[in-house]
Amino acid sequence: MTPERARELLATVAGVTVAATPTAPIVAQVLTEHWLDAARYVKATLGCTYFSFLTAIDWKADGLEIVVWVDNLDAKLSVQLRTRLGADQTTCASIVPVYRGANWMERECFDMFGVQFVGHPDPRRILLADDWQGHPLLKSYAVDTPHPPYR
Q1: Are 117 and 96 in contact (CB under 8 A)?
Q2: Would you identify the CATH topology of the domain 3-118?
Q3: Contacts of 25 (CB under 8 A, 6+ apart)
Q4: Model's pTM, two decimal places?
Q5: How many Cα atoms within 13 Å fall on the side-chain side of residue 33?
Q6: What percent of the chain is predicted at pLDDT more than 70?
């Protein structure tokens, strides 16, 4: 699988727009409702079986963006999937059914950004105490909010 062929194939997937830049990684913007399908596609069709990471970016008024990086190590192919949640949207489909490695990173994303991953097998905090108020990596997070002590 060449990067050029992977771009062509990925561009045919519903809800996916592939960035025009020919550099690695292949960057694909995915509509939120097609998020899980896009993850399945890059694993099954492009051979991206290696899950590298998942994180979020807070774009303030423009909402949160979820970013996933996966690789086909044999073909030296990297794909970055991105989906933009709406300004008031905090839910996204879990990709744990496709990439088990996403489990803890989705939990961390919930903990730090407040993203609820629908279908996640264990949707609870992983870094902060259960009674922690708020999500510290949101740009709207009040730094002076009182919190329980660390354990």
Answers
A1: yes
A2: Beta Polymerase; domain 2 (3.30.460)
A3: 69, 78, 79, 80
A4: 0.89
A5: 2
A6: 95
